[in-house]
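Section handout, structural biology tutorial.
Before the tutorial, make sure you can parse a SMILES string by hand: atoms, branches in parentheses, ring closures as digits. In the record below the ligand is nicotinamide-adenine-dinucleotide, and the chain has 307 residues. In the tutorial you will relate the predicted structure tokens back to the input. Do not try to memorize them.
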Amino acid sequence: MRVTVVGSGFVGATTAMRVVQKGLAEVVLIDIIEGLPQGIALDIKESSAVEGFEPAITGTNDYADTAGSDVVVVTAGLPRRPGMSRMDLLEKNAGILRGVIEQVKEGSPDAILIVVTNPLDEMTYLAAEMSGFPRKRVMGMAGVLDSARLRYFVAEELGMSPAEVDAITLGSHGESMVPLPGQATVSGKPLSELVDQPTLERLFQRTRDAGAEIVALLKKGSAYYAPSASVAQMVNAITGDTKEVLPVCAWTTGQYGISDVYVGVPARLGRGGVEEIVELALSDDELKALRKAADGIRAKCADLANL
Ligand SMILES: NC(=O)c1ccc[n+]([C@@H]2O[C@H](COP(=O)([O-])OP(=O)(O)OC[C@H]3O[C@@H](n4cnc5c(N)ncnc54)[C@H](O)[C@@H]3O)[C@@H](O)[C@H]2O)c1
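Predicted structure of the complex:
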């Protein structure tokens, strides 16, 4: 299997490292900056003897080297700076994404695309439109990250291991993230029995703001360790055909009463991409919030046509 990572910044470089270290695929790392992907690839290869993995990674500025990729992860684009919203990035990153997808579809017409560039939901839609690929082969990464952050915050609150916490978030990446309190458990016990409602709300809000919390601390750039871990989990599900159900930004065709929009939903991932959108039993409030998030994304995608 061949996985191309477009963009060799913080998210791209750490994603490439995780994918190659885990032995999920041969990795091609590409960027417009000369020397950057080559330098990162060489640095990663030089760690292989110590870490004990096959150094199957190439850095390049030429899309010819990415031809025939099975999975293409798109991280090219600007990250947020303090005070910037993900939407502030829309115009700039839409231009970058258009150029990237043009090149990717040429050399890797059968690839599965995982979009990471923000604003996530809109960029995923744009990648699907630009590539013309079947929608099940185009998805975005946000829900795995948001869910991981929520799981960590719950674990921290209760003094437990994050591995004991199960939780999932749907909807949009950002303010319209939809946490599912009914699905959250700690060592198998419902989370709602372990914390009171105000604590639950505080943990959900911290998760919505988690990206901005890191941006404010770093001062320049945004998060990359948790984002790249989340992308690697999706890559593993696809290359390993694991059929895992993960929350991803996927194209809806009537599930949850939502159609024709990319939104965060639980999706079964495998070699075919999004092989099924799984319909969980949601409360009325959760369903309402999910539909509202989908309406918000639909409106913003309509704005893309005016850029
Ligand atoms: N979906 C998520 O949950 C999530 C999480 C973290 C970051 N992000 C987003 O991921 C993107 C990347 O973040 P980062 O921290 O790695 O940024 P970064 O600035 O470190 O890296 C971006 C890289 O993209 C490259 N690039 C720009 N135009 C390109 C092009 N046309 N072709 C190839 N490469 C190009 C740049 O040279 C740079 O190396 C941002 O848009 C950020 O907001 C999304």
